[in-house]
Write a structure and sequence with these properties.
18 strands, alpha+beta, 21 helices, seven-stranded mixed sheet, flat
């Protein structure tokens, strides 16, 4: 018999139907030469410190750092977990072959391999690797099963991530709690608990980003400047002079140029295009759902996971915005399956679908492509949140096949005496992909900090016809500008900052380039934010994220930049990705973290400041 192990009962049921395993037993299906069973997500975890030696049960500075000679795994001590594991273990003992049907990602690989290792699996294993749960995708996946050894680097990356988090998280949490929290220095177990100072490889740099931004806001001193502008033929021209720090300096020039005519020196018209936005990876989808609907990162992840399991969206835990070339022939069929969107799909009918390198690029896809619809009919039981998130995915997919938006940019240069002025305007010639969002405000960039909203409107105005050499009276004025502090993070902007290791990036191409050094993985960032809420290191004030006093105090007491550097954490993430590709040594990664926690422990124990939180 061939044993298939899935990650959830619902997926097990779907696969069992396709394989013909229709007889239900306690914890598995049977039929047609197959057994189909499942985990409930993680059944196993890394051992706790006390599992290695009773001495580590006690929280004591003298035992730090705790580094086992060899890491081991254990069953999560829950009745349902243990019962299901016994089912899997008994089936493995009788099976001739295993097909690993876990989620096709790093965490899914780790979950399944730990279970098989714990069960003492000695039989051949193959891997089902699919990007959607449609019947067609499952059948195709079973016809192209992969050897287990192909996914060994993926497993090693997941294992390194888990061990790295154990080494830093458990040791640093005990270290900082015992050294700096109240009277817990002696290490009695009763002194810890709610007073634990939680420190982690990803959560601490993320908290540091939030605290740093909050301090920038609190310490911000606004500054007034005055810009010189003038109104001519109902068009506001801006001076080329730098803003003035004193209003009287602007007044002097206004007094000089008021009696002089404004003269048009030249005009240029330039056509431009704006390509459709990229398809969604998980982080971009979480950012957009937060921006448009206020959904938390965790809410969006749960929602897209549900859409994946309902077969209407592809695999969600992805960090690429590209599709592979083999998806292109299927796109027409996917579009035709989106019956609710026919009014905006109709303009694409009867023409060859556009194939852009910004959408289809094999070199930018490793295990899974961007999140797109599967083309399956939408079930009637979708929740409002599921419909909203699916709407984002569907419209983004549709719009990449639309033409670019084309516009004409007009620039008018003028002078008043020796002073230069300029006005710009833009006319949309063809909305192209923006027609997809004609009744949708999702593309309005209300979070753009780079421009004053009024200036943005000025740039989009339609310019009257000017002639070179014309001149006439104008109305100069000074416009006061007050510098604004940075904005508090929202969950959306925090996700962007985590993705780019704190860099402020709006450009999509640059964002793609910085992904390799982002903090955390797309699938873990939501959980990290939730941990910070749970630990009460951050709180939500309307849509904004604020650090609590506990969060501020924790970051202030951590002097070692190794633990709170977003850039360094991003480098570790890049190395994990390299391990996943087989380009970096897992042993080297773990050894570096071991050395790092030894250094951190030495530095903290050497601190004589007597600081207490």
């Amino acid at each position: 018999m061939i044993l298939c192990i899935t990650e959830k009962p619902s997926v097990g049921s779907d696969i069992a139907k396709i394989l013909g395993a229709t007889t239900r037993h306690d914890g598995y299906y049977e039929g047609n030469g197959y057994w189909v069973t499942w985990t409930y997500g993680h059944l196993c975890t890394l051992k706790e410190p006390a599992d290695y030696t009773p001495l580590w049960q006690s929280w004591s500075l003298s035992y730090l750092p705790m580094i086992p000679p060899r890491f081991g795994i254990k069953l999560i001590p829950q009745n349902t977990t243990e019962r299901q594991f016994r089912v899997i273990e008994s089936l493995i003992c009788k099976a001739s072959e295993i097909i690993n049907c876990g989620d096709a990602g790093q965490e899914g690989e780790l979950i399944q391999r730990w279970v098989m290792q714990k069960a003492g699996c000695k039989i051949p294993v193959k891997r089902l690797w699919i990007s959607s749960l449609t019947d067609e995708a499952i059948r195709e996946g079973f016809s192209h099963l992969r050897p287990e050894k192909d996914l060994q680097p993926l497993y090693e990356a997941g294992l390194c991530r888990a061990i790295g988090d154990w080494i830093l998280g458990i040791n640093a949490t005990r270290l900082y709690t015992l050294k700096y929290r109240g009277n817990s220095r002696k290490g009695a177990n009763k002194s810890v608990g709610s007073s634990v100072l939680s420190v982690g490889r990803v959560q601490t740099p993320t908290l540091a980003l939030i605290v740093k931004r909050q301090k920038e806001i609190e310490n911000f001193v606004p500054k007034d400047t005055w810009e010189l502008k003038t109104l001519y033929r109902d068009v506001l021209f801006s001076s080329s002079l730098k803003p003035f720090e004193r209003p009287e300096d602007a007044d002097k020039i206004i007094e000089t140029i008021s009696p002089l005519p404004l003269e048009i020196e030249d005009m240029t018209k330039k056509k431009g295009t704006e390509a459709p936005p990229r398809l969604f990876d998980l982080t971009a989808l979480q950012v957009e759902a937060n921006k448009k609907f206020g959904y938390s990162a965790d809410d969006t992840l749960k929602t897209i996971q549900s859409l994946y399991e309902k077969k209407v969206a592809t695999y969600p835990r992805v960090d690429t915005t590209y599709l592979t070339d083999d998806i292109y022939p299927k796109c027409g069929q996917i579009l035709m399956g989106l019956k609710e969107y026919m009014p905006i799909i109709d303009p694409l009918k009867g023409r060859k679908l556009k194939k852009s390198k910004k959408v289809f690029d094999n070199s930018k896809v490793t295990d899974h492509h961007a999140i797109i619809p599967t083309g399956q009919a939408l079930p009637t039981n979708l929740t409002e949140r599921e419909r909203n998130v699916f709407d984002l995915i569907a419209k983004r997919f549709i719009c990449v096949f639309y033409p670019d938006c084309t516009f004409e940019q007009t620039t008018v240069n003028a002078k008043v005496g020796k002073y230069k002025f300029k006005a710009t305007g833009k006319v949309i010639l063809d909305k192209g992909w923006k027609n997809v969002y004609a009744k949708d405000s999702a593309t309005d960039d209300s979070d753009d900090d780079s421009k004053d909203n009024k200036d943005a409107k000025d740039e989009d105005r339609i310019m009257p016809a000017f002639e070179k050499g014309e001149s006439g009276p104008h109305k100069p004025r000074k416009v006061k500008r007050t510098s604004q502090p940075p904005k508090y993070f929202t969950e959306g902007t925090l996700l962007k900052a985590m993705e780019t290791a704190g860099s402020q990036v709006e450009d999509e191409d640059l964002r793609e380039a910085l992904k390799a050094n982002g903090i955390g993985r797309p699938s873990t960032r939501a959980a990290i934010i939730e941990i910070l809420y749970k630990r009460e290191y951050i709180k939500k004030v309307r849509k904004s994220i604020h650090a609590t006093q506990a969060g501020i105090d924790l970051i202030s007491v951590i002097k070692d930049e190794l633990l709170k550097s977003a850039e360094l954490t991003g480098i570790w993430e890049n190395r994990l990705r390299m391990i996943e590709r087989g380009d970096y040594s897992p042993a080297e990664f773990i050894n570096q973290l071991k050395e790092m926690i030894r250094q951190i422990t030495f530095n903290v124990l050497s601190d004589t400041s007597n600081i207490r939180i």
